[in-house]
Each structure stands twice: as C-alpha cells, then as structure tokens.
Design a protein that fits this description.
Layout lengths: L1 E10 L8 H7 L5 E6 L2 E10 L2 H14 L3 E6 L3 E2 L1 H8 L3 H9 L11 E2 L5 E4 H10 L5 H19 L8 H15 L1
Antiparallel strand pairs: 1-3, 1-4, 2-3, 5-7, 6-7
Helix pairs in contact: 2-7, 3-4, 5-6, 6-7
C-alpha cells in the first residue's frame, strides 16, 4: 500500500460543536488533519490505499459518514506557472520556457486567464505533456485525471450523508470513464 496526500473541502457541520473533530475521527478520518478555513472544513488526508482512486473513494465515504458534505477535492486542476513548477519539481524558469515554446514543443495552451499576466493551465493537459516528454511519471497524469473526475462528480451530483462507499466508487468510475 502507498500513502496518498490530498485535501477534501467539505461543509455542513458546525465547527463549534463539541463533537466536531470526534465525528470525523469516529467516521474513519483518523488520518486527516482538520481545520476550518474561509467558512469551509478542510481535511488534509495522508491515506494509505492500493490506489489513489481507492484513497479518494474511502475518504469521500468517511467524510460523508461524519455528516459533512464533500464540496471538492484539492489540489485544483487549474494551475499557474508556480503550481506547475511545484508539482513537477522543475524550476519556474524552466516551466516558463516550456510555455513559451523555447524548450520543447506543443506545451498545452492556457485554458483561462485571470488577467493578461496570469494565465491558468489545466493540470491534466500539462501532466500528460510532461509524462509524454519524460518530465513526470505516468502516475502523476493518472492522479490528475482522477482528481478532475472526482471534482466533476461532486459538482454534478453532491455526495451527502448516507451515500455509501460503493455508490461513490461507482460514480467515480463512471466519471473517470467519461473523462477518458
């Protein structure tokens, strides 16, 4: 088994309740650090599982068992140059050269621009390019696709209390198949 690190952003529970942390612990989130930020519950997991997808499925189910609603999975798929550098282990200067086409070719184009100076890229497309060009292992691309599929799933059909791990797993598999 491998340990996977990710963050689930959730809502629906009052952080001022006496049993706030206990609910997550008793539901199986004993491998998560819990905080409350900007009105949302952030659970930073270090979950051991056979695969990244299984780690996410089990964590989604445990968060739901605690009575919270899963809002999204992080890290987000939209990334800036600094995010790309950090996730790939390459320098920001090297990533900038890839983006400009000065080093390598066919680097993915930005998918959004916050301002004219702050483009955002789709991490799935970037990680695919990096795998194809020997900059990242295949697992990075797979995890990027799973993360985006999981967030697409949550956005379309909320995962609420009472949703079973099996239902989450089936939804995630279907979302991943559509993303392929």
């Amino acid at each position: 088994m491998k340990t996977y690190e990710f963050t689930i952003i959730a809502s629906g529970l009052d952080p001022n309740r006496d049993d706030f942390e206990d609910r997550f612990y008793e539901a199986g989130c004993d491998d998560a650090t819990i905080s409350f930020q900007k009105g949302m519950i952030a659970l930073e997991f270090s979950r051991a599982a056979k695969s990244f997808a299984q780690a996410i499925v089990s964590a989604f189910a445990d968060v739901s068992k605690a009575g919270a609603r899963v809002e999204r999975l992080e890290p987000d798929h939209l990334v800036n140059l600094s995010d790309i550098a950090m996730r790939s282990g390459l320098s920001r200067a090297a990533i900038s050269l890839y983006c400009k086409g000065a080093r390598g070719k066919d680097f993915p184009a930005p998918v959004a621009r916050v301002t004219s100076d702050s483009p955002l890229w789709d991490w799935v497309a970037v990680s695919r390019w990096m795998v194809e060009n020997g900059k990242l292992p295949q697992e990075s691309f797979v995890e990027a696709r799973i993360t985006r599929a999981a967030n697409d799933l949550v956005g379309l059909r909320p995962i609420n209390r009472g949703t079973t791990a099996k239902e989450i797993e089936q939804r995630l598999k279907a979302a991943m198949a559509e993303a392929a």
